[in-house]
Amino acid sequence: MSAFSFPLLTATAALPAIGAVATAAVPAARRTAAKWLALVFSLATLALALLIAARFDPGAKGPFQLTESHAWIRDFGVRYDLGVDGIAVALIALTALLVPFVILAGWHDADPLEGAEPNRRWRPTQGFFALVLAVEAMVVLSFEATDVFLFYLFFEAMLIPMYFLIGGFGDRAGGRGEQQAAAQRSYAAVKFLLYNLAGGLIMLAAVIGLYAATAHQLGAGTFSLPEIVRARASGALQLGTGTERLLFLGFFFAFAVKAPLWPLHTWLPNAMGEATSPVAVLITAVVDKVGTFAMLRFCLQLFPEASRWAAPVILVLALISIVYGALLAVGQRDIKRLIAYASISHFGFIILGIFAMTSQGQGGATLYMVNHGISTAALMLVAGFLISRRGSRLIADFGGVQKVAPVLAGTFLIGGLATLSLPGLAPFVSEFLVLVGTFSRYPVIGIIATTGIVLAALYVLVLYQRTMTGPVKPEVKTMPDLRVRELVVVAPLIALLLFLGVYPKPLTDLVNPAVQHTLSVVDRKDPQPSVPVTAGPGGGGPGRTAQTQDVEAAK
Amino acid sequence: MENLIALLVAAPLVGAALLLCGGTRLDRAGHWIGSLLAVASFAVGVVLFAGMLGRDAGHRALHQHLFSWIPVGGFRADVAFQLDQLSMTFVLLITGVGSLIHIYSIGYMEHDARRRRFFGYLNLFLAAMLLLVLADNYVLLYVGWEGVGLASYLLIGFWQHKPSAATAAKKAFLVNRVGDMGLSIAIMLMFTTFGTFAFGPVLAATGQTSEGKLTAIGLMLLLAACGKSAQVPLQSWLGDAMEGPTPVSALIHAATMVTAGVYLITRSGALFNAAPDAQTAVVAVGAVTLLFGAIVGCAKDDIKKALAGSTMSQIGYMVLAAGLGPVGYAFAIMHLVTHGFFKAGLFLGAGSVMHGMNDEVDMRRYGGLRKYMPVTFVTFGLGYLAIIGFPGLSGFFSKDKIIEAAFARGGTEGWILGGTALLGAAITAFYMTRVMLMTFFGEERWRNAPTPSPDRPSAEPAAETRGEYAPPHPHESPKVMTVPMIVLAVGSVFAGGLFSIGDAFVGWLEPVTSFSHGHSPVSAGVVTAATMVVLVIGVGLAWLMYGRRPVPATAPRGSLLTRAARRDLLQDDFNHVVLVRGGEHLTRTLVYLDHSLVDGAVNGTAAAMGGLSGRLRRLQTGFVRSYAVQMLGGAAVLVAATLLMRGV
Amino acid sequence: MNPVYYLYLAALLFTIGAAGVLIRRNAIVVFMCIELMLNACNLAFVTFSRMHGNLDGQIIAFFTMVVAAAEVVVGLAIIVSIFRTRHSASVDDASLMKL
């Protein structure tokens, strides 16, 4: 425990939870107050998240910092254990960063329909923002939890507010009947819930199995991640090969549903397509990250041997996700579904990086989580602004927007370029690291994954061409450009994409030690180059000396 | 001195940021800001050049380390610049020609409402291109590499309201991405082989690894070069890229960006030297492309597309030379520089012609323009003489050397390559003379209304539909446009000769390319004579076909080869059938399968559950006594099971 | 006398009761048959209590009686109210709790 006894991690999770309750309690007539309240709470959470990042010391020893530990359910060894490593800090910061933008972008998404004045019982606006904050609280806690049971609890609990966000709030004008839209929404929401519950239940079985194993071998059962890792390393806890693999699969299945990995992905396009775009951002940029994060933290650390055993299969699945998601994105006619399939492709990259088990791969995967969150948020939110202007999600309904709304088109293009990992923007750094990390251990998989960069260019540019260029469609002619509120949402995201693309060092410094720790637990080392070059790498050495040697060699 | 290097990149980058984010406030001054920053970058380049000349050859390279960019494990990419003789040559070419074209664009884009954005993109291009040539490692080079791709995408599609422009832009980016894939795989290979991807250490260590690996890296670099430099098989985008404004074609698709592939190969020279198989591939690509481009250039009636074919062909020469190894690197770069002058000049001339002809691009609608545009005629003519290799002009020196070096390869290969290069020279003379004759000589075909023809690449269909035809009023372009053309024409005339005085250029690049003299089976004099002969044949043939006889205003059907060449030798048709159609079918099938198979399995499970519970519901008959039977039966089963378990 | 005979009697009574529940339609008769089954169980409990020499069975028999009494109160009330509304005491008529 540090001398700093203020429970910072608890506070960061509790603040949005309190905000959710407070927002929900705002009287029906004072909608705007509820919005501002939610925004203030999300900004305060961001401040706390930044405080975590500031207090976190990447160089310190030990896997977790800022730890808090309290007994909770003594009989079953469940503890309220919190702690963060560099990866968690980065993702908490991402979550806390994105939620204010989600709230701002969805400022009018939950306004009651014209004429339908809200009453005391029915307060959709308050409900929407309260649910968003509730999701934030649970996501933050699942990033912080170092107790498997505690993690599981919030991992599952966040489904409830997400279910209501997807099923309860959709795009206003779907172009179809409101009734049909509602039916589609509820289908998407139920699908989301059932898929994730199924994954979660299998994980619950594995969690109980793990507990039983610890109870059997350690005397007292425990759910504590550091304790189990320590016990496994010292040999006090020995799982049979078969048991370990089964437990691993139980955990992995739940995370693969959430991440989502092919072929467990089909809930994502439905959910992202039907939800409003801020909620879609919440799904793909925030909630889904818990899945990939948990692979790193729980799958790899609890079951290192099984992870190594399963890695080849998972890598192939991830590879299929990359190519398959990209190809399907090319074939979509709906903007939001296109972005959803693009996300599936990107999650393939993240999982690829994690299970390549090299420091470039895992470091890249962690950066990828952050960068994908920001870039998808930028693209999706601008797409949302676009869709709300036209009242349609179909690509074919747009055309020539660039001429009437150049700023909107420009931001959309930048979001798209980030999605296709253009160098100079943040996602390039992470995608390249993942590819290099994968290539250095599995060259063939690395090369096939590289085709993803061509396919990404294809779906992004086709989308841009069909919506933004060409002759101006008559329905688009009166489309207004971005408003101030919308610009406030998009501009910081773009600035961040640029900054992290040019100077990702703060992030890599944060993440590297955590990745090294994970790799040491999994007992994997980076493959060494076949010809180690003695000169300082990275262009430290002046090129001239090398070339003079060349001349000599040529002679 | 080192600290100035970053300024080279920073100046245009600041310009791009200002112009693209500045909003409409900068509309009136945007083009001046853009041009000023381009010139500023050039000025910095000149200062650095002067400084470099002041040092002796061994200490000319400069190095500037800015910051550590991506440090993860053993992977360390830095933002660091390296300015040696090769980079310096490029810096001067890029900023020099770039500045001229900025100035030219002030006039050319005068009536475009989005001129500010145009200059923003041009500045962005300069910054990216400078980053490309100044980077000291392959990853940073990759950033510039994709950056110029982005700028090229934005500028080709500058007139986005034209669907053809938007499509061309997308195509250029996609084809380039295929090449980029090669570059990224090459970088990964370097990282796994050497543990680094900085030029210095990698190129120094080429002797310590197997040739197979080096060949693989070399082939991947070649793929990248093919994409960016429009070499076969990734050349298809360059012709379409002419949809962009003409200054863009001059700067990006003639003088600078498309030569990045040559830079890459030359920069990686040490690596290619150690991988002869990769070199052979480079040479083959260059030889094929130089013929391919030349043939396409012969058939195009669109002046810009004819010049694009020519660009492809000339870069083919450079790639060929670069593939020859230390014998050819210096000549490749020399041809690159002279080509930068005369091709940029030719494009600007074409732009000037279009400017005066209501944006008509069909050469069959030109004719006799020399009277109306004297300055354009003279500058274009000098560029023409330079490119066909007229003795004494730039192209003569640089191309002749490449042909010589090709023969010097020795053996059958040498004869094939030399012969190809000679044949290319003949075709070059032919199609350039054709362009010249069709544009500036002959009768004034633009006076009559065009006859509608399905084959004609109609740039201005509106004129035909309107019924009455208003002939254009050809006029000379304003000073702001002609001055850059004159400067480039001067360069086209003198650069080659200047470089060749005492092999100055070769000596200058020696520390980077480690030049070695080849032993040609044919003496230099014979090669020069042969070049002259094919030159005369090419020009003469063109004069017979287009000078002596009047040029029909509508294209004749032409031979099979001509028709194929008009369609870029069917490369696009191949792409369309195999990649576009095939891809569409693939995605459509996958979308269907995703819905029916993957999602179908999920929905099927749900439906099966629903069906099962429907069946089970039937058991609830509502009759109390049937429930009682079930209870009794259940109890009996339980008792029986208990007894059985006990028994066992 | 051998206590096993009481068990045989209890089994016989239970079977009669069960058969009655399954066969008869009149709710009152069904109800009485259920009582018969309960009392058969009571008899078995008491017999076991005697056989094992402890009081557990007798205590449970008292519990059963209490529960049976409560059940009579509720059950008869339901039957009477059904009879009042439908003018029938047949259990097959009250088959509304299906599909």
Automatic annotation (TrEMBL), chain C:
Gene Ontology biological process terms, A to Z: ATP synthesis coupled electron transport
Protein name, entry field: NADH-quinone oxidoreductase subunit K
Originating organism: Streptomyces noursei (Streptomyces albulus)
EC number from the UniProt entry: 7.1.1.-
Subunit record text: NDH-1 is composed of 14 different subunits. Subunits NuoA, H, J, K, L, M, N constitute the membrane sector of the complex.
Function: NDH-1 shuttles electrons from NADH, via FMN and iron-sulfur (Fe-S) centers, to quinones in the respiratory chain. The immediate electron acceptor for the enzyme in this species is believed to be a menaquinone. Couples the redox reaction to proton translocation (for every two electrons transferred, four hydrogen ions are translocated across the cytoplasmic membrane), and thus conserves the redox energy in a proton gradient.
UniProt cross-references to Gene3D superfamilies, sorted A to Z: 1.10.287.3510
Molecular function in Gene Ontology: NADH dehydrogenase (quinone) (non-electrogenic) activity; quinone binding
The gene coding this protein: nuoK2
Catalyzed reaction equations: a quinone + NADH + 5 H(+)(in) = a quinol + NAD(+) + 4 H(+)(out)
Topology within the bilayer: Multi-pass membrane protein
Pfam families membership: Oxidored_q2
Enzyme class: translocase
Keyword Cell membrane in annotation: yes
Listed GO CC annotations: NADH dehydrogenase complex; plasma membrane
Family: Belongs to the complex I subunit 4L family.
Alphabetical list of InterPro entries matching this protein: NADH_UbQ_OxRdtase_chain4L/K, NUOK/Mnh_C1-like
